[in-house]
Amino acid sequence: xxxxxxxxxxxxxxxxxxxxxxxxxxxxxxxxxxxxxxxxxxxxxxxxxxxxxxxxxxxxxxxxxxxxxxxxxxxxxxxxxxxxxxxxxxxxxxxxxxxxxxxxxxxxxxxxxxxxxxxxxxxxxxxxxxxxxxxxxxxxxxxxxxxxxxxxxxxxxxxxxxxxxxxxxxxxxxxxxxxxxxxxxxxxxxxxxxxxxxxxxxxxxxxxxxxxxxxxxxxxxxxxxxxxxxxxxxxxxxxxxxxxxxxxxxxxxxxxxxxxxxxxxxxxxxxxxxxxxxxxxxxxxxxxxxxxxxxxxxxxxxxxxxxxxxxxxxxxxxxxxxxxxxxxxxxxxxxxxxxxxxxxxxxxxxxxxxxxxxxxxxxxxxxxxxxxxxxxxxxxxxxxxxxxxxxxxxxx
Length: 396
Fold this sequence. Notes:
By secondary structure, the chain is α/β, with parallel strands linked by helices. The protein has helices at about 20-35, 55-65, 85-95, 120-130, 185-195, 215-230, 240-250, 255-275, 295-300, 320-325, 330-335, 340-345, 355-365, 370-375, and strands at about 1-10, 40-45, 50, 70-80, 100-110, 135-140, 145-150, 155-160, 165, 175-180, 200-205, 235-240, 280, 310, 380-385. Strands 1, 2, 3, 4, 5, 6, 7, 8 and 9 form a 9-stranded mixed β-sheet that branches. A 6-stranded mixed β-sheet has the order 14-13-10-11-12-15, with helices on both faces. The longest helix has 19 residues, at about 255-275.
């Protein structure tokens, strides 16, 4: 028998003529996740198989749990001899030493020329186990041990209780997007949700020194590192927003500060998108959560860009967002008490239904185009993969 890892695709299986593109991207992403390991990866339209040269299945499994596009994966045993008696001997050998009182056999037969159908094969294999192991019985509803057998063209694969993957699409199949990454709870979760749909992300962070601290920037870098685990690295664009933010504060009515600030951020984000082949802007806005996230505010802010703005959390409530943040390990970092530039100039009574005509009028009070060009031309780019052997503080 040959020990390996078997990957099931789930949603990818619904793809038709373009499934090859999805599977090639998934193979590339799995290869990237296992880049420092000696592995051989092959795939067909039904399954992907990973052969390891070392017995490091636990570490490989841990990494696969961060790869989108995988519905389920299993440590499997490949049996080349498809004779039912030989398969029975292999199953008995594999279950030896396992503690269980109840079991179920599930057979899938992709080799339609195999002379025994799936149901009959499962019954025969169950009989082999009952005959040779005392004190066990079949439980088709809640078995302690699930014995999976796949009869494929090349061989038979045997595996037991499975590990669930993340699902979704392989990162990169949908193109690139730019995540507006703040230090809050929402934007990292929005990024995670976009990655799940196959969008490879770059990130933009707006800092406003000396009003924002180095700790706030450090926090965003840490959040980007956590997202990079799912994204095959991340490029973080750091925009110094101080001059723009101070100009807004000095020249515009304070109830419109957040509206105009967000319009400037959108303009900058669109420029970065076009310079880096990103097709969409992604952010963590949730309808009605704050003044800038009412439907009227979103429409007024969105008006300054032509590129699509995707809001994966638009219809999520805060508790749902927090649940995901805890799951992906961004929550504890996000709640660190370092303010970002969106919170330091919040007016006491921000407008919740801003008018586009007024926003345009107020913006004419200062030369924002020159300030935007300066911010983009002088912005910092941090590649998260290059931080592995560096102290973050060296970059601050």
